[in-house]
Amino acid sequence: MKTREAIEEYLTYLITEKGDALNTIEAYQKDLYAFCDSIQNKDIQRIQSKDLNDHLFVLESKGLKNASLVRKGTVIKGFLSYLKKEGKIDLVLSDLYVPKKEKHLPTYLNSQEIERLFSVIPIQEERGLLDLALMEVSFACGLRVSEACSLRKDALSLTGGYIKVKGKRSKERLIPISQDALSILQLYYDNIRKNIKSKSPNLFLHSNGKNISRQYFFLRIKKYAKDAGIEKEISPHSLRHSFATLLLENGAHLRSVQELLGHSDIKTTQIYTHLSHKKEQEVYEESMRRKNRVD
Prior knowledge:
The protein is mainly alpha-helical. It has helices at residues 3-16, 22-38, 49-61, 66-85, 111-119, 126-141, 145-149, 179-191, 214-227, 236-249, 254-261, 266-269, 271-294, and strands at 156-157, 162-166, 172-176. It has 13 helices and three strands, in the order H-H-H-H-H-H-H-E-E-E-H-H-H-H-H-H. A three-stranded antiparallel β-sheet has the order 1-2-3, with no helix packed on it.
């Protein structure tokens, strides 16, 4: 069987058995056809691990970005894994080289930047009060964007000082909420939310009763960051990153931060230790520069 014929069989499998979307199939087809051309449509029994490795090396030498190399390599490896599982080729899959995805440390704001961001939000305006309440609770509780946008009004205990959040895989967690955030939420609820007639159970709503969207959150925080003169490229998720980083910088245990964030694996939470260590290094270097100036 030639490589192109095997590709057609694999794509049919993805459609009929796995139910992959058409645009996904089209992207896979393009990457697999390019691989097929690079090995001159050889018989699949003659495919070697070095064929994938050489193909990616050529693409890399042409200046293809790492993210694209990872995607193309993963697609081709998936195809070869399928052929091996079907008993049509005999490859040692561990010999297939696919570059690893680059890990980027998340953007976060320090406490001064958080203060600047929140201070430019006009809470005398209805929309501004909604925005500040949304951002305050997102930061104070380290919420995911989806969790903040879909937070139910009955999930908030103003007297108890906590919120109940339903995260990924419908896993619930209780999160304490700061007094600052509680005060803003009380102001928002008394002056806006309780007067909105809507069937939606959500806490944060537009004045017309419609749910807020992730896109709305994204656009509003970008606007306020610009107004506050913050040059970092931030998003709503930056508030969650800031929450975790500031907790660790102030001595919180990693396991506690994991529980508050709702991470199932502590390895996911460990990225924030890199951020806190980076901050420690900056403080150290600044201290040394001051010492040198004195000397």
